[in-house]
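pinging the channel bc i need a second pair of eyes. not urgent but kinda urgent?? the chain im working w is below, pasted from the shared doc
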Amino acid sequence: MDRNTLTGLVLIAAILIGSFFLMKPSEEETKKARQIEHLDSLKKAGALKKAPAVAKNDTANKVVDSAALKAPFGASTVGSEQLITLENKDVRVKLSTRGGRVYSVELKEFKTYDKKPLILFDGTNNEFGLKFTAGSTVVNTNERYFTPTGTDVKVAGTDSSSVTLRLSYSPTQYVDYVYSLAPTGYKLGYTIKLTGLDNVVANSKALNLNWSASLRKQEKDIKQERQYSTVYFKNTEDNPDYLSLTKDETKQIADQKIEWVSFKQHFFSNVLIAQQGFDKVNLAVSTDINSPDVRQMKAGLTLISNNTGTYPMEFYFGPNRFSTLQKQGHELEKQIDLGWGPLKFINRWAVIPVFNFLQNFHWNMGFVILALTVLLKLVLSPLTYKSYLSMAKMRVLKPEMDEIKAKVGEDNPTLLQQEYMKLYKKAGVNPLGGCLPLVLQMPIIFAFLRFFPSLFELRGQSFLWMHDLSTYDAFINFGFTVPFLGDHLSLMCVLMTISTLIYTYFNNQISGATGQMKYIGYISPIMFLGFLNSYPAGLNYYYFLANMFTFAQQYIIRLFVDDKKIHAQIQENKKKPEDPKKKKSGFQAKLEEMMRQQQQAQQQQGKKK
């Protein structure tokens, strides 16, 4: 190794050693580096979702905080959240000092489908507060801290408890939220009071109140729960109305005074009632299928003052039980879907009173439905008898109708029907006699299709293997979606379908139906298997019972109806001369006229050919 090489190596070593000591980080820098490395490792492991923000300049932050404190209501920008509980026999309400709002509501009498405390909403998914301008500052009370001025104070002359939460501008200028709760019931009194703020709050005679909530899942089937959950509202003159049950919708109402707004779920409601009404509302409902919650609801409400600065209101947090809602007043019970037109009339004035009467016996709901079915079948038994008798007459006439068909042939259906009508007329038989009683019973069948899914009393009630009559009984869970059926198979729906198929078979035997008519009746039960598979077990149980009692009625009627006597009576009728004075029924006259026109049209077509 020559001298130059040796000198170069020595210089390189000196530079490396010097760089090590000169560039070595201080102990403080090493500590920070280790912290950063630790945070990075936690992020990679998923332990931290968001790194904490690092203040760039503490002095600058203090300046910003100082400026915020000097703004109107500035002191309310800082504070710590405290929860205040108001509780009675039925509800437990938690109020938050942050926003002064209702933080959560628990209904003490009820549980979720999986037996957990039933909480309508909590602080993480709801907002409630005023939004107004004070000076150049936009104040959203939902983000401000209120101060309790009275906790669990008894209201003079009552047994109610009252809490006042205050948002202060000065010792003599403030916004009060006054909450009160009676010893029982689901109503929470709520009053907004503005004191000395006329010259502070811009347009203080009209306040904007914003309310939003993401309603929590309470029931087994979230799909069904969403079908009955939306925003309801009522103006002071008309019946309640609602936003879409199936899609996202927004609605603005500015030309009517709104009495109340409700965030309604399937079996529970959150209602805000204004004694003076809301002068303008903006409503919205949406569904996030990726959210575990049912639906998201919003309401922007405008309050017009009566020059007192006081806005009296009240909340209803409770069940959608018809009798309970009716006691609250304000037509809240009209949130319950009882169907349209005659269906609503049947459910409101016939089914509900009978059901309430049967409930007074304190039976299991399975026996209440059984008793309801028996009563309805007894009331409808005259129609069932007429239907059976008419089908028996048609069965007796079947041989003669076959003779006419063989004589006339099937090439001329109009002539064939005319000959049939002559036979019916002579025999004194109404061909639609067997159908009309069934048609008259159809409104009751469809009324129950609306009544049972909306019936709060079935919620959580078990009978036999059915743990909850308000939802489907999953006899088989597939674990995947099957076209037409879904992800499960309901045993009660299967039993209902089987009983309907048997009922159809015996009806064909009674009526003597042949050909295509014989098989048409088997199609609808199969279709209803898919349609009703996710409907409440209580509804399928009723349809099953109705079929079984119809079997029993037909068996009893059959003991008193003799085909030979019916045939003899028909032959006697055929021998009687036609009474020229006897007026034809409107239906018969229209049918004959229609057949006459069809025959004329066929004759004209034949001439053209």
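so Residues 90 and 532 are 34 Å apart (CA to CA). and Residues 381-408 form the longest helix (28 residues). — does that match what u expected or am i reading it wrong
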